[in-house]
User: Fold this.
Amino acid sequence: MKTIVIGVIGADVHAVGNKIIEYTLTKAGYNVVNVGVLSSQEDFIDAAIETSASLIIVSSLYGHGELDCRGMRDKCLEAGLDDILLYVGGNIVVGKQDFSEVEKRFKEMGFDRVYPPGIKIEDVLDTIEKDLGGI
Amino acid sequence: MKNYLLVDIGSTFTKLTAVDLEKEEIIATAKAITTVEKDVLIGYERALGKLRKKIGEEIIFDKVKACSSAAGGLKMVAIGLVEALTTEAARRVCLGAGAKVELVLSHNLNQHEIKQIEDKNIDIILLAGGANGGNKKTVIHNAQQLAQSKITAPIVFAGNKDATDEIEVILSEAGKEYYVCENVMPRLNVLNIQSAKQQIKDIFVKNIVEAKGIKKIEKIVKDGIIPTPNAVLTAAELLSTGTETETGLGDIMLADVGGATTDVYSMGEGLPTQMNAILSGLEEPYAKRTVEGDLGMRYSSLGILDAFTAAEISHWKSQDVDIVHEAHKRHDDIEFISETDMDYVADDIFAGKCVEVAVSRHVGTLNGVYTPMGVMYYQTGKDLTNTNYFIGTGGVVISSKDAKAILKNSLKSPTRPMELRPQNPIFLLDKTYVLSAMGLLSTDYPDIALRMMKKYLIEL
Assistant:
């Protein structure tokens, strides 16, 4: 069984979507480790190390995602998580920006997949399975 | 009539408490210098002689029970994976078992660290790492490093359960004494103390007692000898939670200011008491113990000195107390006994500092974050603001003319606004070291032990 670490990064307390993601991924057959709201990069990374996770899904809904996610890939490398996949999704930037620009910026920061507002977790299940090579 | 003799073999004194179970009274107490180097029984017999003299008449003890912190107590190494998770969980298990944690190590162990373990004369090694189903590479690597070392101390494996089979092969092939327990952190941020704690206690009873030269007393003591802090924790937990027939005191704290360390205990869930606080980090144990090796009245008095600010030192100087001189005096002569008024004044100031700083390190803290929904707080550690009772013990607190003033240093203060310190507890004094004795008694007679604790703790 593959392990996925999920949580809401930064000073963000949006808890509902986080619960939906946990529910959906668990139902799909993954071992879900939820670090919850108000989580720091270190919380995600520590959890991923101890649980041997294959993927970290970062949620951010309050517009400060870009600040909160900066340097996360570097920290993963420093922590020995060389092969970990990083997804990010939600309202990850302030205001209405061209999403292709946003996606580019987050990919440059080392995220493997970047999702715009309105994407449901169930729409991503196929991609996750493909990326992880199974459930 | 049924009498118990409860023995606490401390690093300095062997303390005896004779208890009348029917009257639920302490008949008498006595102490003599501990004699582990030669023969632990010499000190015990001396104390027993004094005790018999005090009682005056012939007395038969139905049972003798003992705890010990002699010969350095129980020295342990805690090994985990990530500092904030399994390493911290392992450290808490060691403290909860009554150990002195000599080394805390994380990630892949290297040869320098193995050498440190070899040099430290460790009694038990606790090897953790990985949640169940999680990382097992590191804990297996660390087992291999231990297997290849000269270390003979027993190894308690309490890490990722998936690694158990491999680790058993590694350690048994290397001829190491090892034990397998439940994972100290089975799931993320979930703390599981009991299994490993019990195992450590069993090993202490079985092996360590012999190594510490206190084996001889086993002829007299029927049940195994347990580490003293373990007895105190058992007592404090009983005092807090109560039994089926006797209510406990609820959330309590205890500070024990000793010559080498200051120990702080808290019994309680420690959940947030304010609405806008969110718990973060590893789960906290209901019965929590922390030990401050740099805060002690003799061996570690220079550590206390470091805790004073320059402003505080000059404040005391203006009151004619030379903090620096007094600290060095105690450090340089560990057998120093207070005699003059100034000695006692300085003792109180130092003890107060020990309580203030040790409580700081024990309690949880709040960290403010400004969110679109207003200020929120992360709470790390236990919220102990609603502690009902705060108990003080240790030679300096007991002999002080104003123990309450010393213990008041534990309170919430404007200089430490983010610390979740007790706000308005009732202060109690453990003048007769009743806690360790009742910890021993409680395994046989919890109700009596609880009632006696309530009776013999003095309200300040």
Remarks:
- Chain B has a mean pLDDT of 93.
- The first helix of chain B runs from residue 40 to 55.
